[in-house]
């Protein structure tokens, strides 16, 4: 049975924008593992209830079901040890947690209020009420107010990107000479942004744009 990945989709089923699902699509490519994706919408909770939780990514690999991107990455690393490593040695794996936590605690929150209004417009109509209710409750501000305040969120994004720009100014990838899971994590966050918002948060000649193309190219995803 072919591996299956439940992957967040918009109204257009081919529009796949989840930062956490992108991590896993790159991790599967890194391990040279083929898979089919199943488009999933925020309100399709029943479809993934078998995984014991309500978020994507969810990976089905033979008889094994794994959810949560970090757990999926660790599962792939231990199940396919003969394929290229996602983390490197134990020290590198530990340092990858700093990258994950920086992305989730600094970079992604800085991007969120810029992206939510753009995502809202692209969602399947059946998802829009749920998305509005959950996101407005989480942020204490309406989607429309976020959109109106958009420019006030730009400085925090640039501040969050500074460590990444400095790093990529001196090396090709976050993990060094080739991409690894630390790159997949940050790529997922920035792909989430570049797919959903028309706002240019970095230019075509920015080191970030160069690195994003290089990550895709490394996996023949360009
Ligand atoms: N910690 C989880 C987070 C996954 C997550 O938040 N996924 C979002 C899509 S990007 C989701 O499924 N949200 C469902 C919802 O908000 O109801 C992971 O790393 O996989």
Features:
single chain, 222 residues, alpha+beta, 8 helices, 54% helix, 8% strand, binds glutathione
Catalogue the unreliable spans. Answer: none
Molecules bound to protein? glutathione
Order of helices and strands: EHEEEHHHHHHH
Number of strands: 4
Give the count of helical stretches. Answer: 8
Distance between the termini: 27 Å
The percent range for helix content is 40-55%
Strand order in space, largest sheet: 2-1-3-4
Q: Percent of residues in beta strands?
A: 5-15%
| CA-atom Rg in angstroms | 17 Å
Determine the structural class based on helices, strands and strand pairing.
alpha+beta
Report the principal-axis shape.
globular
Question: What value does the average pLDDT take?
Answer: 98
Can you walk me through this structure?
- The chain is an alpha+beta fold.
- Helix content is 54%, strand content 8%.
- It is built from eight helices and four strands; from the N terminus they run βαβββααααααα.
- Strands 2-1-3-4 form a four-stranded mixed β-sheet, with helices on one face.
- β1 (4-8), α1 and β2 (36-40) form a beta-alpha-beta unit.
- α1 packs parallel to α2 (69-79), α3 (90-122) packs across α4 and α3 packs antiparallel against α6 (154-168).
- The longest helix is centred in the middle third of the chain and has 33 residues, at 90-122.
- The model has no long low-confidence stretch (mean pLDDT 98).
- It binds glutathione.
């Amino acid at each position: 049975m072919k591996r299956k990945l439940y992957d967040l989709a918009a109204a257009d089923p081919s529009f796949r924008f989840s930062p956490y699902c992108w991590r896993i699509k790159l991790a599967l490519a890194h391990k040279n593992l083929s898979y089919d994706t199943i488009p999933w919408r925020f309100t399709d909770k029943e479809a993934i209830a078998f995984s014991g939780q309500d978020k994507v990514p969810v990976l089905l690999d033979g008889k094994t079901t794994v959810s949560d991107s970090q757990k999926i990455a660790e599962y792939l690393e231990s199940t396919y040890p003969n394929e290229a490593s996602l983390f490197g040695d134990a020290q590198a794996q530990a340092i990858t947690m700093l990258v994950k936590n920086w992305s989730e605690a600094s970079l992604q929150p800085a991007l969120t209020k810029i992206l939510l209004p753009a995502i809202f417009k692209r969602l399947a109509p059946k998802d829009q009420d749920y998305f509005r209710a959950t996101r407005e409750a989480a942020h204490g501000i309406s989607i429309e107010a976020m959109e109106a305040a958009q420019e006030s969120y730009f400085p925090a994004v640039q501040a969050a990107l500074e460590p990444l720009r400095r790093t990529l100014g001196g090396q090709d990838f976050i993990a060094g000479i080739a991409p690894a899971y630390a790159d997949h994590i940050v790529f997922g966050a920035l792909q989430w942004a570049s797919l959903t918002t028309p706002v240019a948060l970095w230019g075509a000649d920015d080191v970030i744009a160069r690195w994003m193309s290089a990550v895709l190219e490394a996996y023949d995803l360009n």
